[in-house]
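Why show two proteins at once? Because comparison is the fastest way to build intuition. When a single record is shown, students tend to memorize it. When two are placed side by side, the eye starts asking what differs. So, the first record is below.
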Amino acid sequence: MLLKLTGSAAVLLACTGIGFFAASEVGRRERQLRGLYAAFLLIQGDIRYQKSSLPEAFFTAAGREQGEFSDFFATVSERLYAHETESFERVFCEELHKTCKKSALKRKDIALLEQLSGMCGRMDDNLQVTAIEWYLEQSAQVIKELAQENGEKMALCRRMGILAGIFLLVLLL
């Protein structure tokens, strides 16, 4: 009897854990987009107020960004400093695709960042700030939509994990 009770508790806990893990994965994309939003807000401020170049602004963002994209900003900055002849757009897109393999970003998020790189690489400071403002507006809209969707999805994942555990218990007992 004790073995049956222990096994039942383990099944219920495992299914609940899977449900909570799935819920955290649903929110991962939103967290990453919020981190990118904050980093580009910082980059925009550096370019606008401190008159930093793109490599300097990316270096600063890499130091302050504590999310999954800090290495991305650092690598882009290093490559831009090391290879003056490479275009910003090319470096940005190459590093973006390397980084996004591990991220939860979707194709439309990546496409938005690629558009930003195309605009920033060919402009002066004022137009770079404007391009980043455009990205921030687009990103804010996506984040707002995700926040509304994710609340319901995360709650559903948690509940489904618990219910799956209960269902398995009923089947096994």
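Second record. Ask yourself what differs from the first in the token line.
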Amino acid sequence: METSTRETRAQVIAWLDQYRQALRSAEIANDELEIARDAVLSFPGGRLDGMPRSSSHSDKTALSVERLTEAEQLYDDALEHCRRTRMRVSRVISSVSNANQRELLQRRYLLGQSFAAIADCMHFDYRWIRRLHQRALAAAAKAIPEKEKTQ
């Protein structure tokens, strides 16, 4: 069964939008990292100054440091995923031959700009940007590798 044009566009948008989703995940991982850092420093035993502490403080410190290490690893993984995703999306956008369509896709899916902001930056009417977006999606759909279209 062949998918409709609307479904195809939705699939292409979802595929292109994966970079912004990866950015959001990295932001959440960064927030978790900040919380873990604050937890290490929030109680008297959290100071890593080499001074001896009571056992309950050292247990809390060890647990907080362990959580901090896990949060750092999650953040590093999120950043790497973000980098790889940006490269894949950039490669597809770069393959679009029309310069205006390519710029629109970059602004929308890499920079996260709204259609109104894109219209303003590119000095086009908002309605024209929406039409250009439909054409850009069709051009980008051809460049998405087949094995990634189903994901």
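One difference worth noting in the second protein: Residues 22 and 108 are 15 Å apart (CA to CA).
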